Amino acid sequence: MVLYDASVAEEHVREAVEESDAAGSPALGRLRRELARGTTELAVLSILNSGRRYGYELLKLLGQAGEGVLEIREGTLYPLLHRLEDAGHIAATWEAEGRARPRKYYVITPDGRAHLTLLRSEWSGLVDAMRQLLDSLDDVQK
């Protein structure tokens, strides 16, 4: 059962961004910030659900997702990781792996997987509601 379809969400975001770009609207930056703020925890937990990652790796993956829509700075990611760790949703370990400088790896915990399931359900409901609203307005405009 698929609870979250990133391609659908990304398509809606892309359409909104393109419309905003075409209109030269200053709302584009606000839209991106609000979307990133509201989806970063979901995105990070989703990435960690696929396997352990270190911070810089998470930053790169977020930056590549959705043509940069989810790109965040270290100053946003690391406090989020600490909050998730404090909440018991992720665990962290330092590993050297033959490197002079160790890396801190993050993994999702069972509590984190349960939390992720809830976040995905909420996101899916939001995307569905927005899709229905936008589709109904498109039908009215036709």
How would you sum up this structure, described in words?
With 142 residues, the chain is mainly α. The protein has a single domain (6-141), classed as Arc Repressor Mutant, subunit A (Orthogonal Bundle), CATH 1.10.10. Helix content is 68%, strand content 10%. It is built from five helices and three strands, in the order ααβααββα. It has a three-stranded antiparallel sheet with strand order 1-3-2. β2 and β3 form a beta hairpin.
Structural shape: elongated
Measured as a percent range, the helix fraction is: 55-70%
Strand content: 5-15%
Rg value: 17 Å
Number of strands: 3
What is the number of helical segments per DSSP (H or I, 4+ residues)? 5
| Mean pLDDT, all residues | 84
Structural class: mainly alpha
Terminal Cα span: 34 Å
CATH class: Mainly Alpha
- What CATH architecture label applies? Orthogonal Bundle
| Main sheet characteristics | 3 strands, antiparallel
User: Do you know the CATH topology?
Assistant: Arc Repressor Mutant, subunit A
Which residues sit in consecutive blocks of at least 5 with pLDDT less than 50? none
Helix-strand string: HHEHHEEH
User: Which strand order does the major sheet show?
Assistant: 1-3-2
- Counted up, domains total 1
Question: What's this, in brief?
Answer:
The protein is mostly helical and 142 residues long. It has five helices and three strands. The mean pLDDT is 84.
Keywords:
Arc Repressor Mutant, subunit A; 142 residues; elongated; mainly alpha
